[in-house]
Design brief:
Layout: H1 2-14, H2 19-34, H3 40-50, H4 57-70, H5 73-85, H6 91-107, H7 110-115, H8 117-127, H9 132-143, H10 153-162, H11 166-172, H12 174-195, H13 205-230, H14 235-253, H15 258-272, H16 278-296, H17 302-335, H18 338-349, H19 353-368, H20 373-390, H21 395-409, H22 417-426, H23 430-437, H24 441-453, H25 456-465
Helix pairs in contact: 1-2, 2-17, 3-17, 4-16, 4-17, 5-6, 5-13, 6-8, 6-9, 6-12, 8-9, 9-22, 9-23, 10-20, 10-21, 11-25, 12-24, 13-14, 13-15, 15-16, 17-20, 18-20, 19-20, 19-21, 20-21, 21-24, 22-23
């Protein structure tokens, strides 16, 4: 009868039924066929799966990303990245990656990055004569940074399912995100040298100095708070004084992106200092996005606010439906001992962590091509986590590995959402978009290998604060 659960799920997926409905229907078929579980348990488990405080972060992070896109804050990020690295060979390729790094600190999703910042980047690269395949490839690769550099919606889902600190997961994504960005920028440099791409803006010490000054101002903000607390100034006063100085500098120098760059500093700093939980950080992200759109840049109208809210409701309802359906499905996988049987089968093949990680990577890369990220996490965590714990693999480290695998899956047919978004933005066929993305899998897979087999890349920063 256990085969009924898996067989019905796969059969329903093969018919083209959405993954959430396939999981819910397969669970109901199993319950009705076996008669061992009361029918009402299906609804009870689905509702119980949504009754989670960390899940409150989902709509708020989605709303923050929508507000950033709707209010045109992505333009400020793009202009800052252009001043910082646009003068390099293959400049707009580097701008694409740096812009995604910054936007990742606000949106938490790859799709928001591809649909928002990606639209600006692809148009600009086309206007400067870059081949459309190059533009689409670098945009797709850089979009995977969205859920790696904190904040991250997949980390929230994984942390909830695996009972792992979301704060540690957020911190664990910082250095891997930087490593991925370095490999992507090296790939841009390679193509620029091979194809003779030049710079896209003339080198200007003034523009570069101003961009570097913006970075210094942002980094000085937490340092100033720390210095003030050393001289017995209360934390609240230290934050207030530092923020006041920041506003004064922003007004005096007419910075374009200081306030946008402050988003990840506020979110990560607030969590590490214990001022708010990751769920509350999602609310802080929305408040900051509203401040930027309504006060700082004054680019957000009430009509835009309503549109961003309605888009958030639509996206959130989709995500939560998947969570609800996966809750009953993953529970049945556990109570029917499917997860235990799979774990025993894997452990009978190998008891070496590095071999398991290789097999897990191959599995997750495959699953990521066919399942939406949230559904994949909810299904895979109950199956793989017992093995992870038995082999002594750090759950925070494994969370980074899982999310990165599933992000790479977003670039693949048949269900890669980033693939379809960029095909629509670039007005290319899915086939041409897929071919354009394939070379950019190389830096992503190199990053995956490093992150998998060098745990310190992920764990060094969380261990400094937790």
């Amino acid at each position: 009868m256990t085969g009924t659960l898996l067989a019905s799920f796969l059969a329903l997926m093969a018919t083209g039924l959405p993954v959430a409905l396939a999981m819910a229907a397969a669970s109901l078929i199993y319950v009705m066929a076996t008669g061992t579980v009361p029918d009402y348990v299906v609804i009870h488990r689905m509702v119980g799966g949504l009754d989670s405080f960390p899940l409150l972060a989902v709509p708020f992070f989605i709303l923050a990303g929508n507000l950033m896109n709707t209010a045109g804050i992505t333009n400020q990020i793009y202009n800052f990245a252009l001043a910082l690295v646009g003068w390099m060979k293959g400049g707009l390729g580097h701008v694409n990656i740096v812009g995604s790094m910054i936007f990742s600190g606000m949106s938490g999703t790859a799709i928001a990055d591809a649909a928002g910042l990606g639209t600006i980047e692809i148009k600009a690269m086309n206007d400067h004569g870059y081949p459309i395949e190059f533009s689409v490839g670098v945009t797709a690769a850089s979009a995977t940074l969205g859920p790696i550099i904190p904040p991250s919606l997949p980390f929230v889902i994984y942390g909830m399912m695996a009972n792992v600190s979301i704060g540690q997961l957020f911190l664990g994504g910082v250095i891997p995100g930087i490593v991925m960005s370095i490999f992507m920028m090296l790939t841009v440099a390679y193509y620029a040298h091979k194809r003779g791409y030049g710079s896209d803006t003339p080198f200007s010490w003034l523009r570069l100095s101003k961009a570097l000054l913006e970075i210094v101002v942002v980094l000085a903000f937490p340092f100033a708070i720390w210095l003030l607390t050393l001289v017995d100034v209360s934390v609240n006063w230290a934050v207030g004084i530092s923020f006041g100085v920041l506003l004064a500098l922003d007004w005096a120098f007419k910075f374009s992106a200081v306030m946008a760059l402050m988003a990840p500093v506020i979110l990560i700093g607030g969590m590490t200092m214990g001022w708010f939980t990751p769920t509350e950080a999602a609310v802080a992200a929305v408040v900051w996005a509203l401040f930027l759109g309504l006060v700082r840049y004054r680019s957000l109208s009430w009509r835009m606010l309503v549109k961003a809210s309605m888009d958030t409701i639509e996206t959130t309802s989709t995500v939560l439906l998947i969570v609800a359906a996966a809750s009953i499905f993953s529970w049945l996988l556990t109570v029917t001992h499917v997860a235990e049987a799979i774990g025993n089968a894997v452990l009978s093949l190998t008891d070496k962590a590095w071999v398991f990680l290789l097999l897990a990577n191959l599995l997750m890369l495959f699953v990521g091509c066919f399942l939406e990220t949230t559904a994949a996490i909810l299904i895979l965590v109950p199956i793989l986590m017992p093995i992870v714990l038995k082999l002594g693999i750090d759950p925070v480290h494994f969370g980074l590995i899982m999310v990165l695998n599933l992000m790479i899956g977003l670039l693949h047919p048949p269900l890669g959402m980033v693939l379809f978004v960029l095909a629509r933005v670039a007005k290319l066929s899915v086939e041409r978009t897929t071919i354009a993305i394939i070379p950019w899998l190389i830096p992503l897979l190199i990053s995956l290998v490093l992150i998998t087999y060098v745990p310190a890349i992920t764990l060094w920063l969380p261990r400094q604060f937790f």
